[in-house]
Amino acid sequence: LKPFGSELACRRLIEDRECDRGATWPLMESGNNIGEGLLAAERQRGRVRQPSLAACVCGFVLDLVFFMIMVALMPVNVVLFLTACCLPIFSWIVQQLLNPRRQYLDGISAAFFNFLEESIIHGVFFSKKQVTSDVVFRHFTRTYLNDNIPEFRRFKQRAVRSNVFWPYWTDTKHFNPAPHFIAVKEPVDKQELEKRLASIQLKLMNLERPLWELYHFEDYTDEDGNKCSASVLRVHHGMADGFTCLRMMMQGCRPNKPPQQTQARAERRPKIGAFQLFRFGIRALRKVALLLPDSASTYKASKHLEATESKVLTWSTLRSGSVQSLKDAGRQLGGASVNDLLIAAITGSLRKYAQTAPNKMPEAITSVMWVSSSPLKHIYSDFEEYPFKWGNGTLGSIYLKLGVGAKFSDFSAVDTLDDVRQATSDKGLMVEAVVATSILALFGWLPRCFGRGLWKVLANKVSISMSNVPGPQFPLDWCGVPLRGMSFFVPPFGTVSIFVTICTFDGGVSVGMGADASLLDVEALRKITGELFEAEIRELQKPALGPV
């Protein structure tokens, strides 16, 4: 037990130092990154040893004895639950004995990689002028395929998947970047680009190569008739979450930090006592474990959407407001955040469209909202200041009910905002974000052959997935491209039929939506993210604008 005790003491020391610096969020990524670096140094000095074979065998025997006792004493359903819990332990022990030096995926990343091949983040970057593919690909190679930056070694690694053991990263032999760069030289407009992106989403990653691709559309005409270019970076979700992708992107930007006068202020997150932490944890576990699946509706298909089945998408740039005007409106509405206003506007636009749809709608639908457990200021931190780590360690998720049925038909935009604020002001959501993704990580720890059936049954309960990425609020160039705007998409899967993505950049707001093509067509998505969303935002901004 001595090696484990030494490692635990080292990790506690790191966490104590993090707390001394004022961290108020449960330590996830920051503690792990720094702790692993110090532990590596300690191992080199011979102070911390890897677990011995005897310790691993003893752990295996104890787990086996415990399992046999439980089999004799517990009902069948509890035995099945314990089997699911013990399988990852057995799998981990065997793998550590056979290959202790492998770079294994974290639990959440493994879940995306094993069970959601189509879970690919599509970052779309719009330029201010036309830029050739050679310029973009050359800058990308210089920044992200540079052997002098060890943090970006992942761009040259592929993931190896097994039906029994955990997936892991390994170096690609004779790495060739050419297949990862796709240049599109023919002219395209916004509607054509939407079709191209919907088609690209159907293309699964080649597991024999690193899990990323970069498309560049040299001759793009935007919705205002401006000639420019558009780049699409595809990164599998098993490789990184949105926060990690944004931090990676900033390394290729100039400038890559906000101006001194606009540095992000420290985030004020409420502290939670030990009793509250326990109470919120039990409540979150009960909420997530007992979550009932939404019924089929305008926004949720009854049939599972396969990875290569048809999907549609669109995006709209907010015309009637900006990040600053939304902040002003939030102050006038009692201190509402920009995020609250955007969620309320999306909810209102979905409700108004549902009123015209033929399908019967439930009073409320469930949405999962993806959040980051890491402070936003770390997006702009140097790797020496805050170590960079691939994966989904900063990912959290919360479940919100969106009122879209007849019961809410008389709600104004402000009424919807009050409803949203009441839900998002709950301090327990901080704990729920950790609990929900911990349960997701359990799927990744299960052997793929065992977890696939459970995933299909348990991972399709919600109707809508939502994500809001607060991008840089200052002008910049990325890979030699002066950016005018950005958006991102993740394709729908199973019966989670709609993905809503909100991105802010340099004061502007972009709303993207992807959907199962059997439910909604692209015109419906354009109406929701364009006309209806704009109307909700205008109504929310009326108090800030004053009497006309």
Q: Could you describe the 3D structure shown?
A:
- 42% of the residues lie in helices and 19% in strands.
- With 548 residues, the chain is an alpha+beta fold.
- Strands 2, 5, 6, 7, 8, 9, 14 and 15 form an eight-stranded mixed β-sheet that branches. A six-stranded mixed β-sheet has the order 10-17-16-13-11-12, sandwiched between helices. A three-stranded antiparallel β-sheet has the order 1-4-3, with no helix packed on it.
- A hairpin with a 2-residue loop joins strand 16 (498-505) and strand 17.
- It is globular, with a radius of gyration of 24 Å.
- The protein starts with a helix and ends with a helix.
- The relative contact order is 0.15.
Give the secondary structure arrangement, pairings included:
Layout lengths: L1 H19 L8 H17 L7 H21 L2 H23 L4 E2 L2 H9 L4 E8 L5 H12 L12 E4 L7 E4 L9 E4 L3 E2 H12 L10 E10 L5 E10 L5 H9 L2 E2 L19 H16 L21 E7 L5 H10 L5 H17 L9 E9 L22 E9 L9 H12 L3 H18 L2 H11 L5 E7 L6 E2 L2 E9 L8 E8 L2 E9 L5 H24 L3
Parallel strand pairs: 5-7, 6-7, 11-13, 13-16
Antiparallel strand pairs: 1-4, 2-8, 2-15, 3-4, 7-8, 9-14, 10-17, 11-12, 14-15, 16-17
